[in-house]
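Q: I have 391 residues here and want to know how they pack in 3D. Can you give me a structure?
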Amino acid sequence: IDIGPHPNPAKAADGKRLHALAIDEPAAAVIQRIFAEFLAGYGIFAIAERLTRDGIPCPSAHDRHRCGLAWSKSAVRAILANPRYTGRQVWNRQRKDEVLIDVTDVALGHMTKMRWNDQDKWIFSEQIVHPPIIDDQTFGQAHQLLAAKNARQVIRRPRTSPRPYVLRGLLCCGICTRRMQGSRNNDQAYYRCTYPSEYTRTNHVRHSRGVYLREAEILPELDVWLSTSLDPAHLSGTIEDLAASQEQAIPHELVTLREEIGTCDQKLAQYRAALDSGADPAVVGQWITETQALKLAADARLRAATGTTRPGPARMTKEQIAATVTAIRDLTQALRDASTEDKAEIYAGLNLHLTYNPGERTVAVRAEVGQTCTKGSCPRGDLNPHALYGH
């Protein structure tokens, strides 16, 4: 909320004002309930299930800035560990670290990662600067209980060998659209999607508690599909389908605008070359002004249609598609004798997306040629931490 002009006269003259946190009454009541239940002996997962069962919106659903299905353990834990509910301002909870995108390829550059500092490095305000939701004693007791739970050491027997999953991160559940996790049963690789019953009742989703799919049922059919689509006898049809999919993916109006902008760029380059060769500056200058006006108008229409100033994905020519598909065909020929780790790398390189529909027992597969991001992740992702519940 706004609490008045800035105390610095220079900043106040620029119109800058001070802001402070105010209590969101519905959210504050939920926070007080979470602390009370945690100190009463309920676990984090039990608290999350009780809140979901009672129909209380989770943080993302309450703020309406993300799609929140139900309460998660991480949301409850973050609330219990947040000292700002005591009314004090806290700084230096996180820091930005610049790390290499790929340690084996320094040329890719760095990416920024937010990491938590140790609590002894946090800086607290001496005075209470906004209305408290809970008192210091309640927060201290919850913090000690959390620390005791985190300090418990769970001794697990080390695995004799790693368990690779070929479709890790590529297979999603067709009901809830979440990624399916790898699991071993009877020494075979499975993929599962576990969905708590509280989630299904709250979101009215027909989802069984556990959905399982055996890896051996997918890989043979997947390899056959890839080898058939890239077979020389079907290669021309595959190239035509890929070219047609680009036409469907990009609206005709956007294609026309981008072609118009490209034509203007070519004309401007020709006009500059004419000036260098000794043409009349007055005549060529008029040509440049007219062409720049056409380009600015096309840019404005493109921004209005796409909502961004960034250029859209350029369409690949049939020759470029043929060269890409030929390279992929050589890659897929190695699938027959490839190891599990090599297969996983090949599938990730093809940018495969698989969706499992449990009701029909089918898997929909999509390969996005030429649409992969650097090393499978964007180097500059969303680094803006979302506000926690009740701020």
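Q: Anything worth noting?
A: The chain is about 45% helix and 15% strand. The CA atoms of residues 77 and 164 lie 30 Å apart.
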